[in-house]
């Protein structure tokens, strides 16, 4: 096919050996097309470059069928499954996805907003939990936007995510039911709303169980493996150790487990550990990590549906949609060790 001749939907249909109507369905409502047919159409689109040309036409017309997804860390184990939900829902309604990877750099986030200002993207999905600083100078008003994974701290934009308070409550209630009272919360944060909500679930559970505030052990953290390891070192320098570690996410919990193992302790015989997220590594830990599972693909689907509602009507009906988490009980929790209980 000549590079100078724009591909048409007829070209795609001819190569895929299907009707034009089937090509249209495969692009806009893929769930209504058989997998084998969809694969043929996708291969034909790749060969012809039709999608690229369709995008170019939409830009010439002054409107975009692309959604900008801005994420701080595309290596985050939570990102890919949420992206699957976002992309499937977008494609079902004739939209594509652009990914802006900020690498935790606020300036990059601002640069990606240029896509919105120049009509290269119709709306924004924000993973960062914070709007790019100075965005007001980039665009007079923020385009239709939805936050996912992390509530937006300074934006007041609609949010779709897991019920962090409920998830944390399930984890702390499990530890309490096993007989733990000295439960350390690792990963408190004043700027990450998801983490502060998980802290609230921890406090709510201990309040209900009658555990005094003075008996609670709270350490701040940034959700990294290293912050979990550091928390273990901090606690071993104190006089009173917890019997259980309730971690703000799985990465923190894995760091705690590594720190305890390095000191020769057995989990869960000596200490119990819980996480939050249920990242793929959780099940491969030794022992496998008890954690709270986020319905990541469903979060992505709901977030995109909310954004498309925003694009269609101008204002979404709901400003916060919280999906219910599941407690996944594995082998990192047991009753408190007698040696620590007596201390």
Automatic annotation (TrEMBL):
Key words, A-Z: DNA-binding, Repressor, Transcription, Transcription regulation
UniProt cross-references to Gene3D superfamilies, sorted A to Z: 3.40.50.2300, lambda repressor-like DNA-binding domains
Transmembrane segment boundaries: none
Record-level Gene Ontology MF annotations: DNA-binding transcription factor activity; transcription cis-regulatory region binding
Pfam family, any one: LacI
Residue span(s) of domain HTH lacI-type: 7-61
Record's keyword annotation contains DNA-binding: yes
PANTHER family to which the protein is assigned, alphabetical: HTH-TYPE TRANSCRIPTIONAL REPRESSOR CYTR (PTHR30146:SF151), LACI-RELATED TRANSCRIPTIONAL REPRESSOR (PTHR30146)
Protein name: LacI family repressor for deo operon, udp, cdd, tsx, nupC, and nupG
Taxonomic source organism: Rhizobium metallidurans
């Amino acid at each position: 096919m000549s590079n100078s001749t724009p591909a048409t939907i007829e070209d795609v249909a001819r190569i895929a050996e299907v009707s034009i109507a089937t090509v249209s369905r495969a692009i806009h409502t893929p769930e209504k097309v058989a997998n084998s047919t969809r694969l043929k159409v996708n291969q034909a689109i790749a060969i012809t470059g039709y999608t690229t040309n369709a995008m170019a036409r939409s830009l010439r017309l002054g409107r975009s069928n692309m959604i900008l997804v801005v994420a701080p860390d595309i290596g985050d184990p939570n990102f890919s499954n949420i992206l699957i939900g976002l992309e499937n829902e977008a494609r079902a309604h004739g939209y594509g996805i652009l990914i802006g990877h900020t690498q935790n750099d606020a300036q990059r986030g601002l640069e990606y907003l240029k896509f919105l200002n120049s009509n290269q993207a119709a709306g924004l999905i924000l993973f960062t939990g914070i709007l790019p600083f100075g965005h007001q100078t980039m665009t007079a008003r923020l385009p239709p936007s939805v936050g996912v994974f992390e509530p937006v701290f300074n934006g007041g934009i609609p949010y779709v995510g897991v019920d962090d308070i409920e998830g944390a409550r399930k984890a702390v209630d499990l530890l309490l039911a096993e007989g733990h009272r000295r439960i350390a919360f690792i990963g408190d944060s004043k700027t990450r709303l998801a983490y502060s909500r998980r802290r609230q679930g921890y406090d709510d559970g201990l309040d209900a169980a009658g555990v005094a505030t003075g008996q609670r052990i709270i350490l701040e953290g940034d959700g990294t493996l290293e912050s979990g390891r550091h928390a273990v070192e901090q606690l071993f320098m104190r006089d009173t150790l917890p019997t259980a570690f309730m971690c703000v996410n799985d990465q923190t919990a894995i760091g705690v487990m590594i720190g305890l193992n390095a000191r020769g302790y057995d989990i869960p015989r000596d200490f119990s550990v819980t996480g939050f997220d249920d990242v793929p590594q959780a099940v491969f830990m030794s022992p496998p990590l008890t954690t709270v599972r986020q319905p990541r693909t469903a979060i992505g689907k709901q977030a995109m549906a909310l954004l498309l509602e925003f694009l269609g009507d101008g204002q979404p009906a709901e400003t916060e949609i919280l999906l219910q988490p599941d407690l996944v009980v594995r082998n990192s929790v047991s009753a408190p060790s007698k040696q620590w209980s007596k201390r």
